[in-house]
Design goal:
about 280 residues; alpha/beta; 7-stranded parallel β-sheet; single chain; Rossmann fold; globular
């Protein structure tokens, strides 16, 4: 691979065995970063790391479970042991089986309106999504400090952190907390550590991917954005590489940047003339 915008930087992308995380870890490797692929699927993670290495990149797989504090600490420790340092962490991992349904469909979904939510469900969802985020941030900052103090943090949030969405109250709460932590960390650890968040809009992954091709739901989803289609995982690579590059985004920190196809700026009725005519 040719010399890239992230040449020789060491980057962890959590939850990088599929979806947005996979797109980001591939994109970082293409820009010259030495990447860590991590996730719960050892087989898929090892295969992806092998593919990146075969394509001329540098990748190492570490099995990782965001709901396990020891696993999070081991991720940082093994990264430093393998590559000698850590420069960038992307907090992308966010198990969705309890918020959007898993392989069994909505049977796995336990996120509900607050009035119907059990304490058990709240804690089961927040363990990886809130506690896990805390552990990842803490361990990354400890590693940054140990090696001299500098580093870059990129969090992957969601539009539900800014806009209400019924039926997934825990999900909205954890993403809102991520946005708030982004600002606090940027202030607390300036100027050595920059921390920013990508606020993602609709993405054609998981349950949404199947809806895109539905004759009724598909057009409705497309109408939620100002672009020609809803996002695919690769659409977030450019913003992430920009935020990871010290040369390009030195003056950007503490920001929650919408990458949402214009979803966040559009009223529910974007064209009043068309609505009146109907």
């Amino acid at each position: 691979m040719s010399r890239g915008r992230l040449q020789d930087k060491v980057a962890i992308v959590t939850g990088s065995t599929k979806g947005i995380g996979e797109a980001l870890v591939r994109g970082f490797a293409q820009e010259g970063a030495k990447v860590v692929v991590c996730g719960r699927s050892a087989q898929r993670g090892a295969e992806l790391a092998d593919q990146i290495n075969a394509d001329g990149g540098t990748a190492h797989f570490i099995r990782f479970d965001l709901s396990d504090e020891a696993s999070v600490a081991n991720l940082m420790r093994e990264t430093a042991a393998h590559y000698g340092r850590l420069d960038i962490i992307v907090n992308n991992a966010h198990p969705t089986e309890h918020t959007a349904g898993g392989a069994a469909g909505l049977e796995d979904k336990i996120d509900n309106p607050i009035g119907e939510l059990t304490t058990e469900a709240w804690r089961k969802i927040t363990l990886p999504t809130f506690d896990g985020l805390f552990w990842a941030l803490r361990e990354a900052i400890k590693q940054f400090t140990k090696q001299g103090g500098t580093g870059t943090i990129i969090n992957i949030s969601s539009m539900v952190s800014n806009q209400g969405l019924a039926g997934v109250d825990v999900h909205t709460a954890t993403k809102g907390a991520m946005n708030a932590l982004t600002r606090s960390i940027a202030v607390e650890y300036a100027p050595q550590i920059r921390c920013n968040t990508i606020v993602a809009g609709l993405v054609a992954t998981g349950a949404i991917e199947g809806m895109v091709h539905d004759p009724v739901i598909g057009p409705a989803l497309a109408g939620c954005v100002l672009t020609t289609r809803i996002a695919e995982p690769r659409d977030f690579v450019g913003a992430a590489v920009f935020l990871a590059s010290e040369n390009e985004s030195f003056f950007v920190t503490g920001q929650c940047i919408n990458v949402d196809g214009g979803m966040g700026v559009m009223m529910p009725i974007p064209k009043l003339e068309a609505a009146a005519a109907g």
